[in-house]
């Protein structure tokens, strides 16, 4: 295995570990939220109402639109770099 293959494997491993960690943390937060709602349904309803009221007053559509534009703006170069890395990796394998 060449040095570049090792770096790509390390990057893939780091990305996979990051994904697994994030998935586990999100799952834990969801479990804790479910437990809280079961123990305190009235307070959970008040929190949900309050947050919904605040979101209703915020220009959330504009934020989502800006986030979508930013995502699309950054996704194209990221896909280009990823494709170039894969082409380089494929050329090194042969």
Describe this entry's structure for a reader:
By secondary structure, this protein is an all-alpha fold. The protein has two domains: 1-58; 59-94. The protein has three helices and no strands. It has helices at residues 3-39, 41-57, 60-93. The model has no long low-confidence stretch (mean pLDDT 84).
Number of helices: 3
Our count of domains comes out at: 2
Quote the average pLDDT.
84
Shape: flat
**Would you tell me the structural class of the helices and strands?**
mainly alpha
Oligomeric status of the shown chains? single chain
The main pleated sheet reads as:
none
Distance between the termini: 12 Å
What is the helix/strand order? HHH
What fraction of residues sit in β-strands? under 5%
Number of strands: 0
Name its key features:
2 domains, mainly alpha, 94 residues
Can you describe this structure in just a few lines?
This protein has helices at 3-39, 41-57, 60-93. By secondary structure, it is an all-alpha fold. It folds into two domains: 1-58; 59-94.
Layout of helices and strands:
Elements: H1 3-39, H2 41-57, H3 60-93
Helix pairs in contact: 1-2
